[in-house]
Amino acid sequence: MPDYRTLEQFFCEALNLKSPPVAISFLDQAPAGIEKFEGSEPSGCSFWRLAGEGRVFYTVPSDHYNCPVGSLLEEAALSAGLGANLPLLARPTCMAIPAAIAQGVVTSAGCIGNRVYANLGDDELYSAIPGSVLQSIADALRTVLPANSALARYHQGRREQLSTA
């Protein structure tokens, strides 16, 4: 089993994340030792904000029913077999979770409800990554990040050298 705390620290530092990654699991029964969420939120993705603030809890399907897009449109599209496979997901934001489970890493710009409820800045977006591939992604980042850093220095120098305006 991967060391998720170490992976969380790595992703936060390597990607200079403003908020920690949030873990989501789909279980057949309530997890032992975890409190059930009490209260209400305007959408299922609002729970991401709460988890990003450090809260640990579980929800049940009815906790997500306040979202008019996620609990109505997406369910209908999936039932009809008409769910789209898009390179950048927009709304509903929660669609990123089943898309990632089915297809791997996906990116979502977030729907307007999610952006408001989760306090997502205009310069932020989501990447949904299945837990089973986190270590592989971390390993790849250890190669990609230094390479991009070197390329950034090269291109900055090249811009200074070739730009005349």
Write the layout of secondary structure elements.
Elements: H1 4-14, H2 46-52, H3 69-79, E1 88-89, H4 96-103, E2 106-108, H5 112-117, E3 126-128, H6 134-162
Describe the structure.
The protein is 44% helix and 5% strand. It has six helices and three strands. It is mainly alpha-helical and 165 residues long. Helix 4 (96-103) links the parallel strand 1 and strand 2. Helix 1 (4-14) packs parallel to helix 6. It has one domain.
Question: What attributes does this structure have?
Answer:
165 residues, mainly alpha, three-stranded mixed sheet, 6 helices, 3 strands
The outline comes out as globular
Secondary structure class reads mainly alpha
Proportion of helical residues: 40-55%
- Count of helix runs: 6
Order of helices and strands: HHHEHEHEH
What percentage of amino acids are in beta strands? under 5%
How do you describe this structure in short?
The protein has 165 residues and is mostly helical. The protein has helices at 4-14, 46-52, 69-79, 96-103, 112-117, 134-162; strands at 88-89, 106-108, 126-128. The chain has one domain.
